[in-house]
Design a protein that fits this description.
Blueprint (H helix, E strand, L loop, with lengths): L9 H21 L15 E5 L4 H13 L5 E2 L4 H9 L5 E5 L3 H6 L4 E8 L4 H21 L3 H24 L2 H6 L3 H33 E8 L6 H36 L1 H30 L4 H28 L6 H14 L11 H9 L2 H13 L4 H25 L10 H4 L1
Parallel strand pairs: 1-2, 1-3, 4-5
Antiparallel strand pairs: 3-4
Helix pairs in contact: 1-12, 2-5, 2-6, 5-8, 6-8, 9-10, 9-11, 9-12, 9-14, 10-11, 11-14, 11-15, 12-13, 14-15
């Protein structure tokens, strides 16, 4: 049968290879990003702010720093700075020890620890926040009941109790009477020292028990996210759809460029395909953002902000994927474009926290446009900082990619007759 002669065409085999590799890439690119979870959440930086300047407060802060299950703990920042970093997603949690902490403990009152979280975060991190707070509170309770903690409390409290006992003894009538009898005075001082030691141990134990029982968490939430998971996934779905659609358009436009350059000239066709991508970048967001607003609720202001932002991100995605396509001759570039797309799904910050990504996935997040696009969308919808920086990063991505595409077009595509992939669109 003549139809089977298509197997002589290399593109038939290329299409089959792309299909096979897609099935491999999804598992090979996505699953390794989850291997480190939940244990790798200890890489998420946290801030501890101690507002209790007493020795007891400092002791508790030191115990907390030494026992929390986090590898990156910031202790020298103000609450204002920490809140800004939290809003920018540069830290995952703030733990604040209030100024009245030690007074409440000494008075037998319930001691409070304040936690600050940013709810406009990735799905995994938002699910972990409650567990992180619970673990941190339990860590405080466990650490202050250890013998080491009791010893630290006794070391802090001992001099205070001894000074108070000495002042009380010095002003008592017995002190004046015993002053005439050195032996009796020495015995009284030894008895007082023993009593001070006994009282110090008792107070340290009481303080530890009070902390273990009475530490209550107070959670402060910023950038509140609606409870439905569909809201949390919205930044990812709109950008995934935009990226995939723009990727396919870029590859086909490059294929068109490769064929039509023989008819219309290389630079004329290059400019025409760039204009087509630019026009699509202006039109596509109207469809995607409007669809999103029909499915979830957000304000009119957010709609127009999201529309403008997505025009920039779509243009950036077009230039990025166009540059890769023109370097790797159009359709064959799908062998690289598809795994890059899959990697960006998981490095976009909506599922796995950006701070918990390992070195390779963190590099992909910073070297591709999807993380900035998803995070900017998340900021507009639910709150977050550095949106302006993300816009600037996307613009630089677009400019750099455009330059790469121009250089690739200038260096290559010098043949005068269509061959290979160019024949399809010639």
């Amino acid at each position: 049968m003549k139809g089977f002669t298509i197997f002589k065409q290399p593109f038939v085999w290329l299409f089959m290879i792309i299909a096979i590799l897609c099935s491999v890439f999804f598992s090979a690119c996505l699953l390794p990003a989850f291997h480190g979870l939940p244990s790798q959440t200890d890489q998420i930086p946290v801030a501890i702010i101690n507002q209790d300047s007493s020795k007891v407060g400092k002791t508790v802060a030191n115990q907390l720093t030494g026992h929390l299950p986090f590898k990156h703990i910031h202790t020298g920042q103000s609450l204002t700075t920490s809140k800004r970093l939290l809003n920018n997603r540069q830290i995952g949690l703030i733990i604040r020890i209030p100024a009245t902490f030690s007074k409440d403990v000494m008075a037998g009152k319930t001691a409070h620890i304040h936690y600050y979280i940013n709810n406009a975060n990735g799905l995994v991190q938002n699910n972990m926040n409650k567990a992180l707070i619970s673990n941190a509170t339990n860590t405080i309770a466990d650490s202050v009941t250890t013998s080491k903690a009791k010893g630290m409390f006794a070391k802090v409290l001992g001099p205070q109790i001894a000074t108070a006992a000495q002042q009380k003894f010095a002003t008592s009538p017995a002190a004046a009477h015993l002053a005439q009898n050195p032996q009796a005075m020495a015995a009284a001082k030894q008895q007082m020292a023993a009593k001070v030691k006994q009282n110090t141990i008792a107070v340290a134990n009481k303080m530890s028990r009070s902390l273990a029982i009475g530490v209550m968490p107070i959670t402060h939430t910023s950038n509140t996210l609606p409870s439905r998971t569909s809201y949390q996934m919205a930044p990812m779905t709109i950008q995934m759809g935009t990226y995939l659609g723009t990727l396919l358009m870029s590859v086909l436009l490059v294929a068109l460029f490769m064929g039509k350059r023989f008819t219309f000239g290389k630079w004329s066709t290059f400019l025409a395909t760039q204009c087509a991508g630019g026009i699509a970048a202006l039109i596509l967001p109207f469809a995607s953002v409007t669809t999103l607003r029909l499915l979830i609720s957000f304000s009119g202001i957010a709609y127009w902000q999201l529309l403008g932002f997505n025009m920039i991100s779509t243009l950036t995605i077009f230039e990025f994927t166009y540059a890769i396509a023109i370097i790797f001759a159009g359709l064959p570039s799908m062998l690289l474009q598809i795994p890059l797309f899959i990697l960006q799904v998981v490095t976009g910050g909506i599922i796995v926290p950006h701070l918990a990504l390992n070195g390779f996935y963190s590099f992909i997040a910073n070297a591709t446009p999807m993380y900035a696009a998803m995070t900017g969308t998340q900021n507009i919808l639910f709150g977050g900082g550095q949106t302006g920086d993300l816009v600037i990063a996307l613009i630089w991505f677009a400019l750099f990619s455009f330059v790469i595409a121009v250089v690739a077009a200038a260096i290559g595509f010098k043949s005068t007759t269509p061959s290979g992939p160019a024949k399809i669109f010639a």
